[in-house]
Design brief:
By secondary structure, this protein is of the alpha+beta class. It folds into 3 domains: 13-273, Bira Bifunctional Protein, Domain 2 (BirA Bifunctional Protein, domain 2), CATH 3.30.930; 290-386, Rossmann fold (3-Layer(aba) Sandwich); 405-477, 2-Layer Sandwich (Translation Initiation Factor IF3). The chain has 14 helices and 23 strands. The chain has an 11-stranded mixed sheet. It has a 5-stranded mixed sheet with strand order 16-15-17-18-19, sandwiched between helices. Strands 4-6-5 form a 3-stranded antiparallel sheet. The protein starts with 12 loop residues before the first helix and ends with a strand.
Length: 480
Amino acid sequence: MSTSALPSQSRDFPAWYGEVVRRAGLAENSAVRGAMVIKPYGYAIWETIQRELDDRIKATGHENVYFPLLVPASVLAQEGKLIEGFAPEVALVTEAGGKKLDEPLAVRPTSEALIWSTYARWVQSYRDLPLLYNQWANVVRWELRPRLFLRTTEFLWQEGHTAHETEQEAVAEALTILHDVYADTIENVLAIPVVRGRKSESERFPGAVDTYTLEALMRDGKALQTATSHYLGQGFPRAFGVRYTGRDGREHHPYATSWGATTRLVGGVVMAHGDDRGLRLPPRVAPHQVVIVPIVRDDDRAEVLRLAAAVADELRTADVRVRLDDRSEVRPGFKFNEWELKGVPLRIELGSRDLATGAVTVSRRDTGEKQQIPLARVTAAVAELLSDVQASLLESARAELERRTLRAPGGYNELIEYLRDAVGFVAAPWCGREECEAQVKDDSSATIRCLPLDEQQPERGDCVCCGRSAATTAMWAQAY
């Protein structure tokens, strides 16, 4: 591990992010341009996110399935808007087994086409509905400007694909996933506050009737789309000939949804909470919630290590994820710096003085505060501190989101200046016309991140761009 200081967030956030990902052992670039190797520490974070999402997905009545990586190009082409939207990112296999293929195979950029062509065989009657399926998979999108976790040519995700009898059921499904699965995980596990909204027409998923999104603010003032849930209407069922006999004896097309969250959430955790010393991991997602660093001398080594192991065992019995760092080849100061970089929420220092006083020193990664804890209270105190660290990180991020959100700017010039500087979100009245949306993007590089779901629709007000009557409130920001 490098001992030199990290780049400063305030001076060079992209360099800071890249160095933290590399030095903390989260990921590195591979031999394939734009594709990453996820290292054990980074994958452990992803596994925790995956478990939390999977538990919630199953709790809402969904089952996991798996579909192939390769999609016949002709199948992908059946849904025109989908292939049009993904065309620049699609990778094709044209040769296999030493021979040219009769038909190219697309490496899935997303699985709607293959899944709906399969659902055509699965759905015959209203009794077959709803289909509530999810798959954990990898996808490939030929990314022109890759960045580890945030945008990579190949990434890991889950993608849900459901079929319903009615539009109401499908819309309710998309919103349930948004709130009960994604928002709950991102806010209460990752401690990242999100703005719930739907995308403007120009920002929707190809083929969607409505795209619902969760937008988060990173510490450099840019937005990160953390998850999306799409109401697809009947477009995909019609394109792939999915029909069923309804309760009225007539033939109908089902209504569709799809939804997904990816390994970009790992990058979101880094950028939402990290500081100039490295990661600050929320306890619920941290691979190690506590690290124990014994401070040993030649004359007390055995006794200190014995006590450290006993404390570790006691915490593990209480379901705390603990790492006992008893490496003898590196000094305690090196260990302190390494685990601060890796963002472990709590560090316990234990040495000869602790043997004498019957207490240990506990240090919080989020605030740097230290306190002495009697050995008899270690397990209870650790549980309390972990809970407080989790809540404090969320509260701090919420305060930052509110502080960096400009509401109802004084005019177009203030809107553009704020967005150009990537200070944060701007919430402002918008007429709903694409011309105004495009003008803001041309002048500031910012986009409408969402139309908030919990907004108060303006009864009277003027579009911040053109002065026409506002139709809605829009949240603008520069974004990853």
